[in-house]
Amino acid sequence: MRETQNAGWVPGPQFKIRPPVRGLGALERPRLENALSAAADSHRLTLVAAPAGYGKSTFLGDWVRNCDLPCAWLSLDRFDTEPERLFHGVVSAIQAAANKLPLPGNDSLLALDQGLAHGRTASYDLLLGALEHLTEPIVLVIDDVHLAGPGLADGIVGVLAASAPPPLRLVLSGRGHPSIQLERFRYGEGLGELGAAELAFTREEVAQFAYSLGQDPAFDAGSLWKATAGWPVAVHASLVSLAQSRNAPPTTPIATPAHIPLADYVAEEILDQLDPSLAEFILRATTCDWLGRRLAVELYGRPNGSVLLEECLRNGLFIEEHDYRGGESMYRWHSLFAEQCRRIQERRDPLLAERLHRVAARYYQDADVVEGVAQTLKGRAPRQAVMSLGAHWLEFVLGNDAQTLERLCRDLPTPWGEDPEILMIRSVCRSLAGDNAAADELIRRALSRTFVLDATRRRTFDGYRTLFDLLPAGGRADHPATPGDDGRTTADLPGGRRSAPRSTGLFLLAQAEFRLHRSGELATALLQATGDIGNAEQLDALDICAHADLALAFAAAGGLAGADEHATQALGRVEALGWGSQERLAPAWLGRGIARYWNDELKAARTCLAKAQRLGSEFFPSGPLSAIYRVLVDCATGDLARLADSSAALEEFHGRGKYAVSWNALYTVAVAKVAEAKGDLEGALGIIQPLGAGGHGALADTLLAELLRRGGEATTAQRCAELLTDRRRNPYIDTCLSLTEALLAHGAGDTAAAHERLEHAVERAEPASILRPFAERRDELADLLVQHAVWGTAHESFIAALMARDTHGGPRLRAQSYWNLTEREREVLAYMRSIMTAAEIADALFISVNTVKTHERSIYRKLGAGSRRDALKTAARRGIV
Question: Is residue 102 exposed (0-12), middle (13-18) or buried (19+ Cβ within 10 Å)?
Answer without folding.
Answer: exposed
